[in-house]
Amino acid sequence: MPLFQTLGWQMPGEAIWTGVTWVWRGSLLLSSIGLCTGLATKVAFVLGVFVLGLPNNLGMVQHKDSMPVFVLAIFALARSGDYLSLDNWIRNRVRQAPREGRQDSPEYTWPIRLAWVLMVLVFFAAGVSKLRNSGWRWIDSDNMRNNLIQHHYTHEPPFRFGLVVAQSPGICRMIGGTTMMVELLAPLALACSRARLPIIGGLFLMQAGIWALLGVDFPIYLACYLFWIPWNWLDKVKGDRDES
Predict the structure, then answer these.
(1) Which terminal residue of the chain, N or C, has fewer Cβ atoms less than 10 Å from its own Cβ?
(2) Residue 240 pLDDT
(3) What is the pLDDT of residues 187-199, one digit of tens each?
(4) CB 44, CB 74: distance < 8 Å
């Protein structure tokens, strides 16, 4: 909100809003396929701040749209189109000028690592907030059970299994305890590679479970888990293909 107040950004008319959102979607598409990557990622970030930030000025903070703005900023600053992109294909096939650079260079590792840190901080802050504001009562009370029942009537969960779970106080407390534990242990995924899979996998299942039981979806957050996949296996596939 302070950013929009400082820049004087206001709700545009319907025609302008529609145009901005379509240009933003186009920049996201170009960024995804790596065409005009440098310009596309910067446009995606600037317009993303506006498109994703505007709803926060209309009476409700959209917390699930906060981290994607920072992710778009990372793409805008990183060398996103150097390798697996149409830009690189054009350089190699048309201009015969492949991009030089080591894949273990910090230029190609800091964007992913920074995305890791952002995700970990978001979940760790959520766990700390639960512990600081509610303490162990967040787990030991009927909080989870009440949420399951309330969201059944205020949202549209894809499954009705939430009401079944709500009938078991023990399972509800187990879900609450597991949620807080995984969130508080999230920073360990940065320091210990062996703990990375169970922690990040647990966070993914937690958000998928929130959608399935409560009807609260996090589609953009779920897409950010792609940062944790070791994509260097593509180099091995490419190398084997070149040898054959």
Answers:
(1) C
(2) 55
(3) 999 998 899 999 9
(4) no
CA dist 159 and 234 (Å) reads: 36
Residue 217 CA, distance from chain mean position? 12
CB 147 within 8 A of CB 80: no
Q: How far apart are CA 118 and CA 76, in angstroms?
A: 16
Is the full-model pTM beyond 0.85?
A: no
DSSP state of 225: G
Structure tokens at 201: 């996998």
Report the 10 Å Cβ neighbour count for 196.
15
Q: Are 68 and 48 in contact (CB under 8 A)?
A: yes
Task: Report how far residue 218's alpha carbon sits from residue 187's, in angstroms, rounded to the nearest whole number.
Answer: 21
Tokens of 28: 């996201």
* Tokens matching residue 45: 């970030």
Q: What is the DSSP letter of 227?
A: G
